Amino acid sequence: MPVLKWWKWLTIPLMFYVVSMGIMGKVPRLPILNETVRNLYFHVPMWFGMIILFGASVWFSIQYLRTGNLANDIKASAYVDVGIVFGLLGLVTGMLWAKYTWGEFWSNDPKQNASAIGMMIYFGYLLLRASLSNEREKARISSVYSIFAFAILIPLIYVLPRFTDSLHPGNGGNPGFNPYDQARYMRPVFYPAVLGWTFIGFWIGDLSVRYKNLIIKRLEDV
Amino acid sequence: MSTFQQLYCLIYKDIKVEFRQRVLTATILLFVVSACFTIYQVFFAGRARVNPLVWNSLFWVVVLFSSFQVVGKSFNKELDQQFWYYFFIVPSNLLIFSKLIYHFLMLNVTSWLAWIFLSVFFQNPVKDQGLFAIAIELSALGLAAGLTLVSAISAKAGKNSTLLPVLGFPLIIPTLLFAIKLSINALDALGWDLAFSHIITLLSLDSIMIALSFILFPYLWRG
User: Are A92 and A105 in contact (CB under 8 A)?
Assistant: First the structure.
């Protein structure tokens, strides 16, 4: 009888709380933003989740290069898969939000561009894995690429947008996402949302890892 | 042999091979020249005027595309048995270091060639040539650092020649964007005070990529 780990038990009430409070909870009434401010609970946690998942993947890539244990590589690739899904959802939720607040789906905002480039980098990772057939070689080469790519992704997302004015809240003099400006009663929903979505990401990744392990076990049995 | 002697020998060997088979170098140089001339013809035929910002963008496009020509073929030559020989006589991160310096030198050649030819065909609008030269050098270093490891990866991954641009383009964008910001600074001669933070950022980005290539390359070639 498999038992859920403690953080998986924690995820269930967290997500019920986040989704219900995200849709029905009290939010400030602001011009232009209106109800779209609720996107804070769904769009922003996607990026937190994506970066944490990619970070976990890099950690397992490093572990693979150190130990040569293929179990680490399976984890690394599974977390990248989920991270890409989170990134795409973050892009889509951000674009929908931008349509109603900035007026366009895509407005050449540096953060939008950086996240699109980030997605291209990780699609490259998938392509690289697909073009190699030998398990060991696939694991080794994609680990090297993944570590290198993550080191470039961080300045891309956290340094580059700071050199350019961004339309994003909290940049270039427009108010918004900033722990000091944020309405006090939004914080008790926002932080659990980040935690909950990240846990969901790891849960999906975990399932994917177990599925891949089952396939390997089955191949070995045959 | 000391490390420096080994490094020198490896780079010397690359340059020597390049001069023996002049076709490869000549192809890259002709690529740059014909790219510049084609751009000139396209703008002439389209009756479009090249203002300084357009000139700058064109320059970086030529540099970017020729950089893929430079790094594209260099590891394919090493894939045969010869490489095993190097593997046993020199430390493998020395190999990537030699390749990196070699690519840096070659990218210098292509970048300055593009600079010369775009200045001949169009008027050179750069006001602060010193700052622009720094932008070229730092971007050549960044492109060499970013693309050397990627070209090794794609050479390892097999014969798929489009893999290099697909993996390389997104990874090179940050370097390129900072170099372009720096070159716009040079274009308007905004002065060194404003450019300083860009130079520092570009330098640190370059050093991150060089350090990582150095650390990761031995794992790549081990198998």
Answer: no
DSSP assignments along B26-47, one per residue:
HHHHHHHHHHHHHHHHHHHHTT
Query: What pLDDT does residue B99 have?
Result: 85
Give the C-alpha separation, B200 to B50, whole Å.
30
Is residue B136 classed exposed, middle or buried when 0-12, 13-18 and 19+ CB atoms within 10 A define those classes?
A: buried
CA-based Rg of chain A, rounded to a whole angstrom? 19
* Cα–Cα distance, B104 to B148 (Å, whole number): 10
The pLDDT value given to residue B191: 75
Helix count (H) and strand count (E) of chain A? 6, 0
Q: Which residues of B touch A (CB under 8 A)?
A: 146, 149-150, 153, 156-158, 160, 163, 166-167, 169-171, 173-174, 177-178, 181, 197-198, 201, 205, 208-209, 212-213, 216, 219-220, 222-223
Q: How far is CA B191 from CA A113, A160, B118, B187, in A?
A: 28, 21, 24, 10
Q: Is the predicted pLDDT of residue A100 greater than 80, yes or no?
A: no
Element (H, E) at A58: helix A44-67
CA A205 to chain CA centroid, Å, is 12
Q: How many CA atoms lie within 13 A of A124 on its CB side?
A: 30
pLDDT tops 50 at residue B4: yes
**pLDDT greater than 80 at residue A108:** no
Average pLDDT over residues A19-26: 77
The ranges assigned to domains in chain B are 3-222
Report pLDDT for A174: 46
